[in-house]
Amino acid sequence: MPTDRLRTAHRPAQLTYDYSLFTPGDTTSPKVCRDFVRTVLRTLDREALVMPATLCTSELLTNVHLHTKGSAMLRVFLTLTRLRVTVFDENQDPPVVARPAAGAAACWGRGLALVAELADAWGVAEDRAGRYAKGVWFELGENGAGDQFRPHRIG
Description:
The protein is of the alpha+beta class. The protein contains 3 helices and 5 strands. It has a 5-stranded antiparallel β-sheet, covered by helices on one side. Helix 1 (29-43) packs antiparallel against helix 2 (50-67) and helix 2 (50-67) runs antiparallel to helix 3.
């Protein structure tokens, strides 16, 4: 029997990827989620998104850790041209963006302002995820670099 017939058919690249990670209300959660996002993006050859995505993810998870008492859920949704990261938490209070009056030397309260600066868009999710009361999300694109997307190899 020819060896060509024994080979399995090539699996086409996926058009979307959807990952979720549940984290405890713990000081390790921002780092674990940041590393998770970095790993997903590097595995799928989306290096241009790694720095802004990990920074924004870290800011959102740090807000959960500082301002809520419960766990969080991270959702990473990636298409050929866009990345959307949502952080769900158990607190229904909306996020607050610090006012510029915080001063140039302020060390706290700049997280959402940083996300707003780095991300193409951000906001509060209209839907809930199970027990989680709200989700704060951000989106990033590759500014036309979608043509350079190389799906990871399978096998």
